[in-house]
Amino acid sequence: MRRPFHHGNLRAVLLDQAEVMLRAGGVDGLSLRELARQAGVSHGAPRSHFIDRQALLDALAVQGFERMAEKIGVALHVPAPVRERFRLVGRAYVDFAVDNAALMELMFAAKSNEVPGPVTDAAVRLFTLLDDGLVANSNAGAGGQHRERFKLLFAAAMQGTAALITSRRITREQGEVLVDDAMDALLASQLGTGILADER
Amino acid sequence: MRRPFHHGNLRAVLLDQAEVMLRAGGVDGLSLRELARQAGVSHGAPRSHFIDRQALLDALAVQGFERMAEKIGVALHVPAPVRERFRLVGRAYVDFAVDNAALMELMFAAKSNEVPGPVTDAAVRLFTLLDDGLVANSNAGAGGQHRERFKLLFAAAMQGTAALITSRRITREQGEVLVDDAMDALLASQLGTGILADER
DNA sequence: CTACTTTCTAGACATTGACTATTTTATAGA
DNA sequence: TCTATAAAATAGTCAATGTCTAGAAAGTAG
């Protein structure tokens, strides 16, 4: 079994510190050397755990997807009528995106997705969770297309709302209303008839 | 009157080259020194026109908003039924966003918007154009709220769709369908009744 | 022709990401 | 327990970059 030595668990420490730094100064403000300084190790130490700066960013992205999946998972299992549950999930999505704007940038950066890898896998896990939770996975066939399009509409609305807030075009409060409106429009659309996981 | 000397019009040349470089290597791949090299001037020359790297990025963002407004303006004035015109505008929006992904990143970066400035102004001009073109600006009052929420739904759907394509979660073709679906859902929603600029 | 301003050059500096050789620490095998 | 082996961390180096400064060159206006 492998165990850390000098520093307890440098990899975890670096990831934690990196997230703090990310929140403070954005992606550009995240410096490997500054990170090492704060962790009290030499400037070359991080290389033992992250071959690249990009490797660190990818690890952060994966962690981000996992934490987002947790939050969404909670909202997904709240016992409530469809409309209410959709709103809860939508808000969980948008809240996470807004509270972790810089992290979201990493998670959805085209860079990480150029070649399928751990980041892409983590993303797939999140959206599989979302899909399975929101939409009935029963009858395939003609309903399958409808389901697919419905899920994309949901994802686009959430991602778009988060983008509007993050870029300061609207306030967080306006975002709340927007999520609700989007959910209403979505549920009222023809695409959202007869394909929901729970019609209550 | 001010006229360029040595280099014709270095500022414009730099902006053009910067856009090429942006398209090739993303925001991170845009180096001031490399830019100067390609323009055949010394590494300090750009400083006469852009005090900062950020100043160059901001100038690019402003240019981006203006070009996007042009494209959208064209789609906005195509004589066609509402549904068709909405689709055209939506596609124009998404197409521009996808064809200029790195530029969009600059345009909507929170950095530029921390303090209102030229970038914010350019953004406001674009969205004013969009709003005035899509939604009737006649009756205020209770309809005003509806109009505002409708416009936000539109913006969120477009921005979200573009994000899905850019992050490679869906293909461009799926994006086309998604835009159409979003427009249908939008026009069918209660929010989109009686507030359109042209009910044809 | 002479100030004056703008544009550009050239040199310097600190910071950064990446690479390498080397030492230190831990783990496992005989 | 002693020892080979792998992992983790150090320290030094390098090229590249953004920013700043002083000064030269080019254009403009009085």
UniProtKB/TrEMBL annotation, chains A, B:
The keyword Transcription regulation applies. Residues 8-68 form the HTH tetR-type domain. PROSITE patterns: HTH_TETR_2 (PS50977). Pfam families: TetR_C_33, TetR_N. Gene3D superfamilies: Tetracycline Repressor, domain 2. Residues 31-50 bind DNA. It comes from the Bacteria. Keywords: DNA-binding, Transcription, Transcription regulation. One of its GO terms (molecular function) is transcription cis-regulatory region binding. This is HTH tetR-type domain-containing protein. It comes from Paractinoplanes ferrugineus.
